[in-house]
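User: Um, what's this?
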Amino acid sequence: MRTVVIGGGVIGVTTAYYLASQGHVVTVVEQRSELGRDATGGNAGLIAPGHSFAWASPRAPAMLLRSLRGERTAIRVKPRLDPRFVNWGVQFLRECTPHRARVNTLAKLALCQYSQRELYRLVDEEGIEYDEHRLGALYLYRDDRQLELGMERMRLLAEHGQQIEALTAEQVARLDPAFTGAMGVIKGAIHGKGDGTGNSEKFTVNLAKICEKLGVEFHTGVVATELIEHHGRITGLRTDHELYRADDYVLALGVGSPFLSRTVGQNLPVYPAKGYSLTVDITDDKAAPTYGGVDEATLVAWSRFGSALRVSSTAEFDGYSRQFTPGDFANILAVAGELFPGAADWDRATLRSCLRPMTPDGPPIIGRGRRHENLYYNTGHGHMGWTMACGSSRALADLMLGRRPAIDLTPFPVRSRRR
């Protein structure tokens, strides 16, 4: 079987790997000149089933309202006359009930747990280097009451297999001495013992090398413009370079997925949330953390990639703009300086933004739609794409190969943007 995978991020490359390893002849089409350069290359690096809560929750509307009033919240909205966002936002608000938040969180958790196991199996079998850390992640709290509430919130995940432990600030510092300098800032943390970190861009590039040995062709700098259909089948992919023909097509294009799917009548409920991240060389090894994690008060997240630190935060709904100013990183830099004083020369950090493909409810879109028998979807993973990549792609490959996936794909259907 010949398959064209559209998108060369971590989702597209893992999809290519699982298909090629089972005999498919795979071509990956990527619009950028390099693989893994958007959301894959700009995330915080967390592999974190322990942080798989749905963003659409009872507390989200108040945060969005504060953002509209001008407060610098972790989830921000820039008001704009964009019918796509208005439609997406209405669907998002409908999901902000306790029941829907629980359902969506558990769906995400199950996929994240399966995906993490599949990632580690793949890495161990193929010997992939990606600056991994498997000993857990730390979710920091600046207030004792918030730590108690955090443990209550985490209980849902603990009931479904996640190992967690509450730590005092002193215990945090003993676990990772880099936090000694933050003793006056934090009150404690939740240790997500099953979580980890790793460089998803590095993983993607190294996995692509293995894919090439399996015969996968990567065509970079190629912009997909239109899918061609005939009698319920996709018969070709038109690009700015050439026309691609295959037996099957996989749409793994992140925030670009709705535009391409719309050419064959499928309106996907995927909208971009812009995230900001910085990467900086470590100047004092002892002051830099070994454990990745999240400051729960500010939702600033970090990971260590060898001799560098990645720090990330914010989900900003600002259309498809990737533009940023130094001021957009003020909160990230302030928190990094509080938690890890002396770890790096923050003025030398490399700044970037990326667009995360968000669904209103949270679970991604995995599987085959009803409109076309040979068009498959693997998109809408939001800020959890790195954690979900291997599980999503393995499950989709199993589905395409006529096997029953190891995870139930019912919570991840191909669904439409409501008009």
User: Anything to note?
Assistant: The chain has eleven helices and 20 strands. The two ends are 36 Å apart (CA to CA). Residues 13 and 208 are 6 Å apart (CA to CA). The chain has a mean pLDDT of 94.
